[in-house]
Structure formats: structure tokens, C-alpha cells
Amino acid sequence: MKRAIVFGATGGIGQAICNDLADAGWSLYLHCNSNFDAANIASQELMKKYPNQDFIPVKLNFATSDEELTNFVNNLLPVNAAVFAQGITKYGFLNDQKLSDIEKVMQVNLTVPVKLTKLLEPMLIKQNFSRIVYLGSVYGGQGSALEAVYSSTKAGLTRFTQAYAREVASTNLTVNVIAPGAVNTEMNAMFSKETLQEVRDEIPAGRLAEGNDISFWVKTLLDKRSGYCTGQTIYITGGWLV
């Protein structure tokens, strides 16, 4: 049985990823930071639809200790894929942000995913094939004013992936980044309708991405046949900012 853990499974993109992977035959851990009820409901719905697969909700606050991260990984059943779909931002000028906010964005988007990767590696490389996919951002390649910290974390994922993929390539573990542009999720719901329309007008494809526009590429990278693609950042932006 092939099993993946999807971090941030209750988010807009995370939900689409879980649906696509379940449809492709994957059993899943559905991770949440705090909303366990949502992860549990999603797991039950997938179990009804795919009764021959396992769907297990799990909770882990990324603002936790190294010991808790280690215990979390040690309590998992074997997985051969990890998808990091969690992510937060803090919109505004750097000078107006609290140091604690800066630390939180760095921790959730970059530091803890790297630590979890280190902890998951021994499990992953035991499998016949294994995959890691991080959710990056177009802003990892084109830094965004008023999201300087967020942009730096996504750029960090790209460079980490490029380097780490070379370390593990001989083990059949591939490591890649899917970098969306503007996606129709709660993260962008903070902006006014006028602002979002201005963004749409800038996108050659003429619309924001939907969750399944992103999840398709995650599913593709998790396919066994994708083994020669590693260390890459793939931009899914509708032609915007690339």
C-alpha cells in the first residue's frame, strides 16, 4: 500500500491534493495544525469513497519542540511520500511586523518542513520509491513587496530542494517544489475584490488558480513514473510573473 502524509490537508490546496491522491490510490495521513474536526471529517468522507484505503487524521502544531516533532514522526506508519501544503503569510511592511510574527512565518514555511524532512528521510528511503513535494510560491522566484519574509521562505524551499535532491537522488527519493501563483484560497481572501480583479487582469490565463490546478501537478510528481524529475521548482501560475 502506498501512503502519503499531507501537511496542511485542511487548507484549500491541501484538500484538493488529498482528493486527487486518494483518487490515484494513495492512503493518506491528513495533517492539521489545530482544526482536527475538519481533518477527521475529511478522512471519514474519503474512507466512504475509497474503502480499501486508509485515511488517518493527525494533528501537529508546527510551533513545537524538536522532541515533539521527533515523537510525531516516530509514531507514523511507513510512508513513501510527504507533501508540505501548509503555509502562512503576514502581509505588511517588514518594519511594522512583530519579531514573533517573522519567526512564525519562518518556522511554519521553512524551518519545520526542513526538520521534518530530516526526520522522515530514514523512513522514506526504505521504500521502493519515495517522494517529497513542497508547496512553494511564485514569490520564491519574484519577491513580493509587503511579503518579504514569506518570499524569503519560499525562495529558501527552492534552494533547499535543489541541494537536498542531490543528496538523496541515488535512493529513489525525489524532492521537488510546486510553486503556484495566485490561488483562489482563504490566504488571498484578505484582499479586496478590486485588488483580486487587478491580479486577474495581470494573469495571462485570465483567472486565479483553483486548488485542483495545483493538486494535479502534486499527483503527477508522486507518480512512480516521475522518478527522473528531482530538484526542480515547477511554476504553476497561468503565465503570471514568470
From TrEMBL:
It comes from the Bacteria. It holds the Pfam family adh_short. GO terms for biological process: monocarboxylic acid metabolic process. Belongs to the short-chain dehydrogenases/reductases (SDR) family. This is 3-oxoacyl-[acyl-carrier-protein] reductase. It comes from Lactobacillus hamsteri DSM 5661 = JCM 6256.
